[in-house]
Amino acid sequence: MTTILIIDDDDQLRKSFARLLTKEGHEVLTAASGEAGVGLFAAQEVDLVILDVRLPGMSGLETFKAIHASDHRVPVIIMTAYGTTETAIEATKMGAFDFVLKPFEVPEMLNTISQALEAARFMRSTVSVDGEPGAANTDAIIGRSAAMQKVYKAIGRVAATDATVLVRGESGTGKELAARAIYQHSLRSDRPFLVINCVAIPDTLLESELFGYERGAFTGATHRRVGKIEQASGGTIFLDEIGDMPLNLQAKMLRLLQEKSVERLGGREAIPVDVRIIAATNRDLETLITQGQFREDLYYRLKVITIWLPPLAERKEDIALLSEHFLVHYARALGVDHPGIEAAALSALQQRPWPGNVRELANTLQKALIFNRGTPIGVDAIAQAAGEDPPLSGQNHAPVTTEEAIRQWVREQLLRQAKGNLFEACMDHFAGLLITEALNITGGNRSRAAKLLGVSRPTLHAKIEKFDLKFETSVKGDT
């Protein structure tokens, strides 16, 4: 469960926030002054701070400075009235995650909160490189093949530098995990790490998201807004799917890499920034260059260091380790015993082509674990999870529908567990499955998954945290 600290002297606003965010699955702490808020922040672990600019005694900006000095990695959302936007902008330039004008629309505020919590998770959730399979509370890059050893060495060599890094590889190979590992082992690990997905944000919004804008730059621009690059100064920006960045923005990105400065939309001032760029793509950039869809000069600026993540088909000796990791992880998340996997099933996994790479392997094993009946996972279970007909084994197997399989699983749970809150355990189990499949269908895009499920994005995020569900995704739409 995530913990959110609200610092505002408006009693009604604090109470309303507490009710709303508690309903969304968060733990809420409140303070009526900056001094009290700083005290709470020091005494408890907090994932996000929502801070009003105008406070009695210690000002909002002073409160922000105190919180930020204690831990740069905790996002702070500034709330401000129209008359105090300059103070909020100043705080954003100093590293606040965002500022929200009062009065605000609740859905927009919830979306900003969800984005901030996601950023906090990326900064705080450890990525284990060549970790032990199934290690708790970490995301892990698993594999001991020669190809993966090259990846680990590259991450180790580049992490301590400020060099621009281009992470390349097919979809599902773990590019986001590699980027986070570089950040967490870098000299900037105590500074912001912001993720921008270049394909998930509409072209019309991506420029203002990255570079910000000046008041009057376009219709509706009623105030200056600081872009993510300027906001993350001193930290790291991860540009996912950069091969899909529009050409007009590629020119501005080139200027950032060459001159270490940005220019807000509608502005004329070059603003110096100190930010490290890590970019990733599964696109063939060389082909895009020949087609006039990607700038050659930007390509060479990005590929100061290139890290290639091998497809699973080229590191099949890692499948046994990966399988153990995912089975331990999903068994823990689903609250079931780890049944093990038969040698024949493991051999079948090693013979598959895996066009979806590690992500596809993880999804297959999760499905096999869910529909397995407590015995070691066999070849038939793998085939069923992969959506294939099971191999002929000389026995007549009656076709089993999804509903029949679920009914059988429920019966087994009822017979196995005579006491305890079985109803809640089963509901949690299927909630985890429902969320997982929604994310699989949407390619890990949490906004689309939330819409598909008919819940708010913060509610979805809270459930993911509750069930400790982790996915190797491209963070599509999560920025």
Automatic annotation (TrEMBL):
Biological-process GO terms, alphabetical: phosphorelay signal transduction system; regulation of DNA-templated transcription
Gene Ontology molecular function: any one: sequence-specific DNA binding
Start and end residues of each Sigma-54 factor interaction domain: 141-370
Domain Response regulatory: 3-117
Pfam families, alphabetized: AAA_lid_14, HTH_8, Response_reg, Sigma54_activat
Domain of life: Bacteria
Positions of post-translational 4-aspartylphosphate modification: D52
InterPro entries: AAA+_ATPase (IPR003593), AAA_lid_NorR (IPR058031), CheY-like_superfamily (IPR011006), Homeodomain-like_sf (IPR009057), HTH_Fis (IPR002197), P-loop_NTPase (IPR027417), Sig_transdc_resp-reg_receiver (IPR001789), Sigma_54_int (IPR002078)
Keywords: Activator, ATP-binding, Cytoplasm, DNA-binding, Nitrogen fixation, Nucleotide-binding, Phosphoprotein, Repressor, Transcription, Transcription regulation, Two-component regulatory system
Coiled-coil blocks: none
Main location: cytoplasm
This protein's name: DNA-binding transcriptional regulator NtrC
Species assigned in the record: Desulfatitalea alkaliphila
